[in-house]
Request: fold
Amino acid sequence: MDEMTLEMTLRPLGGMPSGVASLVGFPRRRLSPALQSLAARRLLAMLLREHAGLDSLPPIAVDENGKPWFPDHPSVFFNLSHCDDAVMAVAAPSEVGCDIERVVSGVDEELTDVCLSETQKRQLLLSPDTCRAFTRIWTRKEAAVKRSGLIPDDVRQWPSSAPRVITLPLPRHMLSIAY
Reply:
């Protein structure tokens, strides 16, 4: 597939906090990781044009923890996420993190033991839909960690909250934004 003909169904997300802009794209076919990254950057360029007045995607650098940022526009914050059939971009006037995942098809004890704290496991047990609940907790954890730029070694200790985290369920996906 020619990278310039990447086609997606776009979905702007309503109900975003003041200053936070986000866009989700659903490619018309499954993409390789490289094309997922390209698609997410394309969404980011669209957001920056509309919400930050930037005509093109500025150069991206990464800090010592691997968190991306714009050296030429340090007051514009962003984050990207993708899975095999969805991509998203978020831009904000302060630190932001995001994650989008397809809702998992099953949750077992081994997975929860590796990924969730005891509190998060209790939340999962109280849910009527453990697959959606697990995916919700996971996207919140990843968005919060991506916002902070600091990744604790023990995944179970990743928080599922930040100063503010919103989670939006989609029919087959879950997404979270920490801002």
About this structure: Residues 3-100 form one domain.
